[in-house]
Specification:
Blueprint lengths: L9 H36 L8 H32 L1 H19 L5 H4 L2 H29 L7 H4 L2 H23 L2 H14 L1 H12 L6 H12 L7 H7 L1 H33 L3 H29 L1 H24 L3 H19 L2 H6 L7 H15 L4 H12 L3 H20 L8 H18 L1
Helix pairs in contact: 1-2, 1-3, 1-5, 1-7, 1-8, 1-9, 2-3, 2-5, 2-17, 2-18, 3-5, 3-9, 5-17, 7-8, 7-13, 12-13, 12-14, 12-15, 12-17, 12-18, 12-19, 13-14, 13-15, 14-15, 14-19
Length: 451
Protein backbone atom coordinates (compact mmCIF):
# COMPACT_ATOMS: atom_id res chain seq x y z
CA UNK A 1 0.00 0.00 0.00
CA UNK A 2 1.34 3.46 -0.87
CA UNK A 3 1.39 6.55 1.30
CA UNK A 4 -1.63 7.80 -0.59
CA UNK A 5 -4.98 7.58 1.14
CA UNK A 6 -6.52 6.20 -2.03
CA UNK A 7 -5.56 4.82 -5.41
CA UNK A 8 -7.70 7.40 -7.19
CA UNK A 9 -6.12 8.53 -10.43
CA UNK A 10 -5.62 12.21 -11.17
CA UNK A 11 -8.49 12.29 -13.66
CA UNK A 12 -10.88 10.79 -11.13
CA UNK A 13 -9.67 13.18 -8.45
CA UNK A 14 -10.31 16.16 -10.70
CA UNK A 15 -13.83 14.90 -11.32
CA UNK A 16 -14.41 14.64 -7.58
CA UNK A 17 -13.04 18.17 -7.08
CA UNK A 18 -15.36 19.48 -9.80
CA UNK A 19 -18.38 17.77 -8.21
CA UNK A 20 -17.56 19.17 -4.80
CA UNK A 21 -16.97 22.66 -6.17
CA UNK A 22 -20.17 22.61 -8.24
CA UNK A 23 -22.31 22.08 -5.17
CA UNK A 24 -20.36 24.57 -3.10
CA UNK A 25 -20.74 27.23 -5.79
CA UNK A 26 -24.51 26.69 -5.73
CA UNK A 27 -24.78 26.80 -1.97
CA UNK A 28 -22.68 29.92 -1.60
CA UNK A 29 -24.21 31.72 -4.55
CA UNK A 30 -27.47 31.47 -2.66
CA UNK A 31 -26.02 32.12 0.79
CA UNK A 32 -24.18 35.27 -0.32
CA UNK A 33 -27.19 36.37 -2.34
CA UNK A 34 -29.12 36.47 0.90
CA UNK A 35 -26.30 38.31 2.69
CA UNK A 36 -26.21 41.04 0.05
CA UNK A 37 -29.99 41.25 -0.25
CA UNK A 38 -30.31 41.58 3.55
CA UNK A 39 -28.51 44.93 3.34
CA UNK A 40 -29.65 46.14 -0.07
CA UNK A 41 -33.25 44.88 -0.37
CA UNK A 42 -34.74 42.94 2.53
CA UNK A 43 -34.36 45.79 5.03
CA UNK A 44 -36.53 47.93 2.72
CA UNK A 45 -39.31 45.52 1.70
CA UNK A 46 -39.69 42.87 4.42
CA UNK A 47 -39.56 45.03 7.57
CA UNK A 48 -41.30 48.19 8.85
CA UNK A 49 -39.23 51.31 8.21
CA UNK A 50 -37.60 53.44 10.88
CA UNK A 51 -36.06 56.93 11.05
CA UNK A 52 -32.74 55.26 11.85
CA UNK A 53 -31.69 53.29 8.72
CA UNK A 54 -29.63 50.91 10.86
CA UNK A 55 -32.74 49.57 12.64
CA UNK A 56 -34.28 47.68 9.66
CA UNK A 57 -30.79 46.56 8.68
CA UNK A 58 -30.38 45.04 12.14
CA UNK A 59 -33.73 43.29 11.69
CA UNK A 60 -32.62 41.93 8.32
CA UNK A 61 -29.35 40.72 9.81
CA UNK A 62 -31.31 38.99 12.58
CA UNK A 63 -33.04 36.84 9.95
CA UNK A 64 -29.65 36.40 8.31
CA UNK A 65 -28.32 34.94 11.56
CA UNK A 66 -31.10 32.32 11.61
CA UNK A 67 -29.24 30.52 8.83
CA UNK A 68 -26.21 30.24 11.07
CA UNK A 69 -28.26 28.83 13.93
CA UNK A 70 -29.57 26.18 11.54
CA UNK A 71 -26.14 25.30 10.17
CA UNK A 72 -24.89 23.28 13.16
CA UNK A 73 -28.17 21.38 13.26
CA UNK A 74 -27.67 20.58 9.59
CA UNK A 75 -24.07 19.64 10.30
CA UNK A 76 -25.10 17.22 13.06
CA UNK A 77 -27.86 15.56 11.03
CA UNK A 78 -25.97 15.42 7.75
CA UNK A 79 -22.80 14.38 9.56
CA UNK A 80 -24.54 11.48 11.30
CA UNK A 81 -26.14 10.09 8.16
CA UNK A 82 -23.16 11.03 6.00
CA UNK A 83 -20.90 8.89 8.19
CA UNK A 84 -23.45 6.08 7.99
CA UNK A 85 -24.55 6.11 4.36
CA UNK A 86 -21.95 8.14 2.50
CA UNK A 87 -20.98 11.68 1.57
CA UNK A 88 -22.44 11.59 -1.95
CA UNK A 89 -26.08 10.91 -1.02
CA UNK A 90 -26.21 13.63 1.58
CA UNK A 91 -24.56 16.17 -0.71
CA UNK A 92 -27.22 15.54 -3.35
CA UNK A 93 -29.94 16.16 -0.77
CA UNK A 94 -28.25 19.34 0.48
CA UNK A 95 -28.07 20.95 -2.93
CA UNK A 96 -31.77 20.28 -3.59
CA UNK A 97 -32.85 21.68 -0.23
CA UNK A 98 -30.95 24.92 -0.54
CA UNK A 99 -32.13 25.33 -4.15
CA UNK A 100 -35.81 25.00 -3.28
CA UNK A 101 -35.52 27.36 -0.29
CA UNK A 102 -33.74 30.02 -2.33
CA UNK A 103 -36.22 29.85 -5.22
CA UNK A 104 -39.13 30.27 -2.80
CA UNK A 105 -37.44 33.32 -1.25
CA UNK A 106 -37.74 34.96 -4.64
CA UNK A 107 -41.50 34.35 -4.54
CA UNK A 108 -42.22 35.89 -1.14
CA UNK A 109 -44.69 38.78 -0.83
CA UNK A 110 -43.48 41.96 0.89
CA UNK A 111 -44.26 43.49 4.30
CA UNK A 112 -46.70 45.92 2.68
CA UNK A 113 -48.61 42.99 1.20
CA UNK A 114 -48.88 40.50 4.10
CA UNK A 115 -47.39 42.31 7.09
CA UNK A 116 -45.31 40.35 9.57
CA UNK A 117 -45.97 37.10 7.71
CA UNK A 118 -43.33 38.30 5.23
CA UNK A 119 -40.38 38.24 7.66
CA UNK A 120 -41.80 35.08 9.30
CA UNK A 121 -41.74 33.18 6.00
CA UNK A 122 -38.31 34.63 5.23
CA UNK A 123 -37.02 33.26 8.54
CA UNK A 124 -38.47 29.81 7.81
CA UNK A 125 -36.85 29.60 4.38
CA UNK A 126 -33.61 30.98 5.75
CA UNK A 127 -33.61 28.18 8.34
CA UNK A 128 -34.01 25.52 5.64
CA UNK A 129 -31.26 27.17 3.59
CA UNK A 130 -28.89 27.27 6.57
CA UNK A 131 -29.70 23.68 7.53
CA UNK A 132 -28.69 22.49 4.06
CA UNK A 133 -25.54 24.59 3.94
CA UNK A 134 -24.59 23.17 7.34
CA UNK A 135 -24.47 19.71 5.82
CA UNK A 136 -22.87 20.80 2.57
CA UNK A 137 -19.46 22.03 3.70
CA UNK A 138 -18.33 18.98 5.64
CA UNK A 139 -19.44 16.53 2.98
CA UNK A 140 -18.02 18.60 0.13
CA UNK A 141 -14.53 19.02 1.54
CA UNK A 142 -14.34 15.44 2.82
CA UNK A 143 -15.31 14.06 -0.56
CA UNK A 144 -12.12 15.68 -1.87
CA UNK A 145 -9.91 15.19 1.19
CA UNK A 146 -10.59 11.44 1.36
CA UNK A 147 -9.76 11.02 -2.33
CA UNK A 148 -6.57 13.12 -2.14
CA UNK A 149 -2.97 11.90 -1.78
CA UNK A 150 -1.60 12.56 1.71
CA UNK A 151 1.07 15.01 0.52
CA UNK A 152 -1.33 17.00 -1.66
CA UNK A 153 -4.41 17.09 0.54
CA UNK A 154 -4.03 20.76 1.44
CA UNK A 155 -3.96 21.75 -2.23
CA UNK A 156 -6.83 19.62 -3.53
CA UNK A 157 -9.14 20.15 -0.55
CA UNK A 158 -8.71 23.93 -0.83
CA UNK A 159 -10.61 23.95 -4.13
CA UNK A 160 -14.03 23.60 -2.45
CA UNK A 161 -12.97 26.60 -0.37
CA UNK A 162 -12.18 28.48 -3.58
CA UNK A 163 -15.69 27.65 -4.77
CA UNK A 164 -17.07 29.90 -2.02
CA UNK A 165 -15.78 33.12 -3.63
CA UNK A 166 -16.88 31.76 -7.02
CA UNK A 167 -20.43 31.45 -5.70
CA UNK A 168 -20.13 34.90 -4.15
CA UNK A 169 -18.75 36.22 -7.43
CA UNK A 170 -21.70 34.87 -9.41
CA UNK A 171 -24.16 36.36 -6.92
CA UNK A 172 -22.36 39.70 -7.07
CA UNK A 173 -22.37 39.73 -10.88
CA UNK A 174 -26.09 38.91 -11.05
CA UNK A 175 -27.00 41.58 -8.49
CA UNK A 176 -24.70 44.09 -10.16
CA UNK A 177 -26.27 43.55 -13.59
CA UNK A 178 -29.80 43.77 -12.22
CA UNK A 179 -29.16 46.82 -10.03
CA UNK A 180 -27.26 48.62 -12.82
CA UNK A 181 -29.77 47.99 -15.62
CA UNK A 182 -33.02 48.47 -13.70
CA UNK A 183 -34.39 51.61 -12.06
CA UNK A 184 -34.34 51.39 -8.28
CA UNK A 185 -38.10 50.92 -7.99
CA UNK A 186 -38.03 47.99 -10.44
CA UNK A 187 -34.98 46.42 -8.78
CA UNK A 188 -36.71 46.57 -5.38
CA UNK A 189 -40.03 45.51 -6.88
CA UNK A 190 -39.05 42.45 -8.90
CA UNK A 191 -35.46 42.63 -10.16
CA UNK A 192 -33.87 41.15 -7.03
CA UNK A 193 -36.21 38.15 -7.33
CA UNK A 194 -34.66 37.15 -10.65
CA UNK A 195 -31.32 36.57 -8.91
CA UNK A 196 -33.00 34.08 -6.55
CA UNK A 197 -34.89 32.32 -9.34
CA UNK A 198 -31.72 31.89 -11.40
CA UNK A 199 -30.40 29.56 -8.71
CA UNK A 200 -32.52 26.78 -10.23
CA UNK A 201 -30.21 26.60 -13.24
CA UNK A 202 -27.11 26.22 -11.10
CA UNK A 203 -28.81 23.64 -8.86
CA UNK A 204 -29.66 21.40 -11.82
CA UNK A 205 -26.08 21.54 -13.11
CA UNK A 206 -24.58 20.91 -9.67
CA UNK A 207 -26.90 18.00 -8.90
CA UNK A 208 -26.12 16.32 -12.20
CA UNK A 209 -22.37 16.61 -11.70
CA UNK A 210 -22.68 15.03 -8.26
CA UNK A 211 -24.38 11.97 -9.70
CA UNK A 212 -21.17 11.20 -11.62
CA UNK A 213 -18.88 10.50 -8.66
CA UNK A 214 -18.58 7.96 -5.81
CA UNK A 215 -17.47 8.02 -2.19
CA UNK A 216 -13.76 7.48 -1.57
CA UNK A 217 -12.46 3.90 -1.20
CA UNK A 218 -11.31 4.64 2.36
CA UNK A 219 -14.87 5.53 3.36
CA UNK A 220 -16.35 2.46 1.68
CA UNK A 221 -13.90 0.22 3.54
CA UNK A 222 -14.64 1.79 6.92
CA UNK A 223 -18.38 1.72 6.28
CA UNK A 224 -18.16 -2.05 5.82
CA UNK A 225 -16.12 -2.39 9.04
CA UNK A 226 -18.61 -0.37 11.07
CA UNK A 227 -21.49 -2.45 9.73
CA UNK A 228 -19.74 -5.65 10.84
CA UNK A 229 -18.52 -4.45 14.23
CA UNK A 230 -20.80 -3.38 17.07
CA UNK A 231 -17.77 -1.85 18.83
CA UNK A 232 -17.49 0.90 16.24
CA UNK A 233 -19.93 3.78 16.12
CA UNK A 234 -20.27 7.24 14.61
CA UNK A 235 -22.16 10.51 15.12
CA UNK A 236 -21.63 13.73 17.01
CA UNK A 237 -21.81 12.24 20.52
CA UNK A 238 -19.19 9.66 19.65
CA UNK A 239 -16.84 12.30 18.26
CA UNK A 240 -17.34 14.59 21.26
CA UNK A 241 -16.60 11.71 23.63
CA UNK A 242 -13.49 10.47 21.86
CA UNK A 243 -12.03 13.53 20.13
CA UNK A 244 -12.98 16.62 22.17
CA UNK A 245 -9.60 18.25 21.54
CA UNK A 246 -10.10 18.01 17.79
CA UNK A 247 -13.56 19.58 18.00
CA UNK A 248 -12.38 22.45 20.23
CA UNK A 249 -9.36 23.11 18.04
CA UNK A 250 -11.54 23.18 14.93
CA UNK A 251 -13.87 25.66 16.63
CA UNK A 252 -10.97 27.89 17.62
CA UNK A 253 -9.50 27.86 14.12
CA UNK A 254 -12.90 28.77 12.72
CA UNK A 255 -13.75 31.59 15.15
CA UNK A 256 -11.57 34.48 14.00
CA UNK A 257 -11.65 33.42 10.36
CA UNK A 258 -15.45 33.33 10.25
CA UNK A 259 -15.89 36.69 11.96
CA UNK A 260 -13.39 38.32 9.64
CA UNK A 261 -15.04 36.96 6.52
CA UNK A 262 -18.45 38.38 7.34
CA UNK A 263 -17.01 41.71 8.39
CA UNK A 264 -15.23 41.93 5.03
CA UNK A 265 -17.96 40.71 2.68
CA UNK A 266 -21.15 41.64 4.56
CA UNK A 267 -20.57 44.43 7.06
CA UNK A 268 -18.35 46.34 4.62
CA UNK A 269 -21.43 46.73 2.40
CA UNK A 270 -23.39 48.19 5.31
CA UNK A 271 -20.56 50.49 6.35
CA UNK A 272 -20.00 51.92 2.87
CA UNK A 273 -23.75 52.36 2.26
CA UNK A 274 -24.68 53.97 5.58
CA UNK A 275 -21.54 55.92 6.41
CA UNK A 276 -20.47 57.09 2.97
CA UNK A 277 -23.63 56.85 0.87
CA UNK A 278 -22.35 54.49 -1.81
CA UNK A 279 -25.04 53.04 -4.05
CA UNK A 280 -25.64 49.35 -4.66
CA UNK A 281 -23.81 49.14 -7.98
CA UNK A 282 -20.67 50.84 -6.67
CA UNK A 283 -20.43 48.59 -3.62
CA UNK A 284 -20.94 45.45 -5.68
CA UNK A 285 -18.14 46.51 -8.04
CA UNK A 286 -15.80 46.80 -5.05
CA UNK A 287 -16.74 43.28 -3.95
CA UNK A 288 -16.41 41.87 -7.47
CA UNK A 289 -12.67 42.45 -7.68
CA UNK A 290 -12.13 41.08 -4.18
CA UNK A 291 -13.98 37.82 -4.89
CA UNK A 292 -11.90 37.22 -8.01
CA UNK A 293 -8.68 37.65 -6.05
CA UNK A 294 -9.96 35.47 -3.21
CA UNK A 295 -10.81 32.69 -5.65
CA UNK A 296 -7.25 32.73 -7.04
CA UNK A 297 -5.41 33.01 -3.72
CA UNK A 298 -7.15 30.17 -1.83
CA UNK A 299 -5.67 27.27 -3.89
CA UNK A 300 -2.24 28.92 -3.74
CA UNK A 301 -2.38 28.97 0.05
CA UNK A 302 -3.64 25.37 0.01
CA UNK A 303 -0.61 24.40 -2.07
CA UNK A 304 1.73 26.19 0.36
CA UNK A 305 0.15 24.35 3.29
CA UNK A 306 1.43 21.07 1.81
CA UNK A 307 4.93 22.56 1.64
CA UNK A 308 5.44 24.68 4.75
CA UNK A 309 2.68 23.24 6.95
CA UNK A 310 -0.83 24.13 8.12
CA UNK A 311 0.17 25.85 11.37
CA UNK A 312 2.49 28.59 10.01
CA UNK A 313 0.00 29.80 7.43
CA UNK A 314 -2.92 29.75 9.84
CA UNK A 315 -0.85 31.64 12.39
CA UNK A 316 0.16 34.30 9.87
CA UNK A 317 -3.48 34.75 8.92
CA UNK A 318 -4.59 35.17 12.54
CA UNK A 319 -1.91 37.77 13.30
CA UNK A 320 -2.67 39.81 10.18
CA UNK A 321 -6.42 39.55 10.80
CA UNK A 322 -5.96 41.20 14.18
CA UNK A 323 -4.66 44.32 12.46
CA UNK A 324 -6.92 44.46 9.41
CA UNK A 325 -9.73 46.48 11.00
CA UNK A 326 -7.39 49.22 12.17
CA UNK A 327 -6.13 49.64 8.62
CA UNK A 328 -9.22 48.87 6.52
CA UNK A 329 -11.81 51.25 7.98
CA UNK A 330 -9.59 54.32 7.58
CA UNK A 331 -9.09 53.14 3.99
CA UNK A 332 -12.87 52.98 3.55
CA UNK A 333 -13.14 56.49 5.00
CA UNK A 334 -10.96 57.92 2.23
CA UNK A 335 -13.91 57.34 -0.14
CA UNK A 336 -11.41 56.59 -2.90
CA UNK A 337 -12.62 53.60 -4.94
CA UNK A 338 -9.13 52.16 -5.55
CA UNK A 339 -8.27 52.36 -1.86
CA UNK A 340 -11.60 50.82 -0.85
CA UNK A 341 -11.06 47.92 -3.25
CA UNK A 342 -7.54 47.46 -1.87
CA UNK A 343 -8.92 47.26 1.69
CA UNK A 344 -11.46 44.58 0.78
CA UNK A 345 -8.91 42.64 -1.26
CA UNK A 346 -6.40 42.78 1.58
CA UNK A 347 -9.03 41.42 3.95
CA UNK A 348 -9.82 38.42 1.75
CA UNK A 349 -6.15 37.63 1.12
CA UNK A 350 -5.52 37.59 4.87
CA UNK A 351 -8.66 35.48 5.32
CA UNK A 352 -7.28 32.94 2.80
CA UNK A 353 -4.35 32.10 5.08
CA UNK A 354 -6.76 30.91 7.76
CA UNK A 355 -9.42 29.53 5.44
CA UNK A 356 -7.58 27.52 2.77
CA UNK A 357 -5.86 24.99 5.12
CA UNK A 358 -9.01 24.27 7.17
CA UNK A 359 -10.40 21.30 5.18
CA UNK A 360 -7.10 19.42 5.36
CA UNK A 361 -6.54 20.29 9.02
CA UNK A 362 -10.00 19.19 10.11
CA UNK A 363 -10.04 16.05 7.97
CA UNK A 364 -6.74 15.03 9.56
CA UNK A 365 -8.14 15.39 13.09
CA UNK A 366 -10.74 12.61 12.99
CA UNK A 367 -11.00 8.95 11.87
CA UNK A 368 -13.13 8.16 8.83
CA UNK A 369 -16.03 6.58 10.75
CA UNK A 370 -16.85 9.90 12.45
CA UNK A 371 -15.06 12.44 10.25
CA UNK A 372 -18.17 14.01 8.72
CA UNK A 373 -19.68 14.56 12.17
CA UNK A 374 -16.47 15.91 13.70
CA UNK A 375 -15.67 18.28 10.87
CA UNK A 376 -19.24 19.55 10.49
CA UNK A 377 -19.81 20.05 14.21
CA UNK A 378 -16.54 21.91 14.84
CA UNK A 379 -16.98 24.05 11.76
CA UNK A 380 -20.69 24.87 11.94
CA UNK A 381 -21.31 25.32 15.67
CA UNK A 382 -18.74 28.09 15.68
CA UNK A 383 -20.76 29.93 13.04
CA UNK A 384 -23.45 30.69 15.63
CA UNK A 385 -21.08 32.66 17.84
CA UNK A 386 -18.93 33.94 15.00
CA UNK A 387 -20.32 34.67 11.53
CA UNK A 388 -24.00 34.91 12.50
CA UNK A 389 -23.37 37.60 15.10
CA UNK A 390 -20.50 39.44 13.42
CA UNK A 391 -22.60 41.82 11.26
CA UNK A 392 -25.08 42.38 14.10
CA UNK A 393 -22.34 43.13 16.64
CA UNK A 394 -20.52 45.37 14.16
CA UNK A 395 -23.68 47.37 13.38
CA UNK A 396 -24.47 47.67 17.11
CA UNK A 397 -20.92 48.84 17.89
CA UNK A 398 -21.03 51.38 15.08
CA UNK A 399 -24.42 52.65 16.22
CA UNK A 400 -23.34 52.88 19.88
CA UNK A 401 -19.88 54.39 19.43
CA UNK A 402 -20.06 56.07 16.05
CA UNK A 403 -16.54 54.80 15.44
CA UNK A 404 -15.03 51.90 13.53
CA UNK A 405 -12.27 51.45 16.14
CA UNK A 406 -14.57 49.36 18.34
CA UNK A 407 -15.20 47.03 15.40
CA UNK A 408 -11.47 46.69 14.77
CA UNK A 409 -10.94 45.77 18.43
CA UNK A 410 -13.74 43.19 18.17
CA UNK A 411 -12.00 41.55 15.20
CA UNK A 412 -8.61 41.63 16.94
CA UNK A 413 -10.05 39.76 19.92
CA UNK A 414 -11.60 37.15 17.62
CA UNK A 415 -8.29 36.69 15.80
CA UNK A 416 -6.56 36.16 19.14
CA UNK A 417 -8.84 33.16 19.80
CA UNK A 418 -7.83 31.62 16.49
CA UNK A 419 -4.16 32.27 17.19
CA UNK A 420 -4.42 30.36 20.47
CA UNK A 421 -5.98 27.43 18.60
CA UNK A 422 -3.12 27.50 16.08
CA UNK A 423 -0.54 27.44 18.86
CA UNK A 424 -2.06 24.40 20.58
CA UNK A 425 -2.87 22.35 17.46
CA UNK A 426 -0.62 19.63 16.10
CA UNK A 427 0.92 19.99 12.66
CA UNK A 428 -0.92 17.57 10.39
CA UNK A 429 0.84 18.13 7.05
CA UNK A 430 1.25 14.83 5.18
CA UNK A 431 -0.77 12.82 7.71
CA UNK A 432 -2.12 9.47 6.48
CA UNK A 433 -5.87 9.10 6.94
CA UNK A 434 -5.38 5.33 7.00
CA UNK A 435 -2.93 5.73 9.88
CA UNK A 436 -5.54 7.75 11.78
CA UNK A 437 -8.08 4.99 11.21
CA UNK A 438 -5.59 2.35 12.35
CA UNK A 439 -4.88 4.24 15.57
CA UNK A 440 -8.62 4.52 16.17
CA UNK A 441 -8.96 0.74 15.73
CA UNK A 442 -6.16 0.10 18.23
CA UNK A 443 -7.95 2.25 20.79
CA UNK A 444 -11.15 0.30 20.30
CA UNK A 445 -9.33 -3.03 20.64
CA UNK A 446 -7.63 -1.84 23.82
CA UNK A 447 -10.99 -0.81 25.29
CA UNK A 448 -12.51 -4.19 24.51
CA UNK A 449 -9.50 -5.85 26.13
CA UNK A 450 -10.04 -3.85 29.31
CA UNK A 451 -13.76 -4.58 29.43
Amino acid sequence: MTASTTTTKQGGLRRVVTASMAGTVVEWYEFFLYASAATLVFNLIFFPQNDDPLVPILAAFATYSVGFVARPLGGIVFGHFGDKYGRKRLLQLAILMVGVATFLMGCLPTFDQIGFWAPALLVLLRFVQGFAVGGEWGGGVLLVAEHSPDRQRGFWSSFPQAAVPIGNLLATIVLLILSSTLPEDQFLGWGWRVAFWLSVVIVIIGYYIRTRIDDAPIFQEVKAEVAESKAQSYGVFEVLRRYPRGVLTAMGLRFGENIMYYLVVTFSITYLATQHGYDTASILRFMLAAHVLHMLVVPCVGYLSDRVGRRPLSGIGAVLAAGWGFVAFPMFDTEQPAIIIAAVCLGLVIHSFMYAPQPAIMAEMFPTRMRYSGVSFGYQVTSILAGSLAPIIAVALLSATGSSVSIAIYLACAAAVTLVAVLVMRETKGTSLRAIDEEDRRRLVAERGEA
